[in-house]
Amino acid sequence: MRLAQDGVLTSNCPSRVVLDHLTSKWGVLVLSALADGTLRWGELRREVDGISEKMLAATLRTFEADGLVHREAYPEIPPRVEYSLTALGREAAEALGPLLRFAVEHAEEIVG
Q1: Are strands 69-74 and 39-40 parallel, antiparallel or unpaired?
Q2: Name one GO molecular function term (predicted).
Q3: 83, 100, 91, 90: which is closest to 23 by C-alpha?
Q4: Per-residue DSSP letters for 60-89?
Q5: Range of 21's domain?
Q6: What pLDDT does 6 receive?
Q7: Do residues 38 and 73 lie in contact, with contact meaning Cβ atoms separated by under 8 Å?
Q8: What is the pTM assigned to this prediction?
Q9: Domain count, the chain
């Protein structure tokens, strides 16, 4: 597969923004966590061990703006907010699956 012909290697290609969002350390993990279904804030924070509140909020905001994550706020006391993948988000999570599997399978030989 040669994507260079699609312009992905040029500095002004919009795909670079998409790649930056999707393949950031926390982006990959948040998408992976949401691939299993809808989660509330606290559940998502526990699922993605080590993510700070600030990074989780920023990642979710970015993915919501990108159309990858749906945020549903319920008018209850206390407030309840749920996050889920959109169809586009599910497609992105599926595409990242092989990369995650590669990382898990080869972590020992790469990291050492």
Answers
A1: unpaired
A2: DNA binding
A3: 100
A4: HHHHHHHTSEEEEEE--SS-EEEEEE-HHH
A5: 3-111
A6: 66
A7: no
A8: 0.88
A9: 1
Q: Pick the residue with more confidence: 111 or 94?
A: 94
- Considering the chain, what is the average pLDDT of its residues? 91
Length of the chain: 112
Phi, psi for residue 48 in degrees, rounded to 5: -95, 80
Beta bridge partners of 85: 69
* Tokens standing for residue 87: 């169809």
For residues 63 and 85, what is the distance between their CA atoms, to the nearest angstrom? 9
- Whichever domain contains 41, its CATH number is 1.10.10.10
Beta bridge partners of 74: 80
Residue labelled with tokens 């919009």: 14
Question: At which residue do the structure tokens 């597969």 appear?
Answer: 1
**DSSP-assigned letter for residue 51:** -
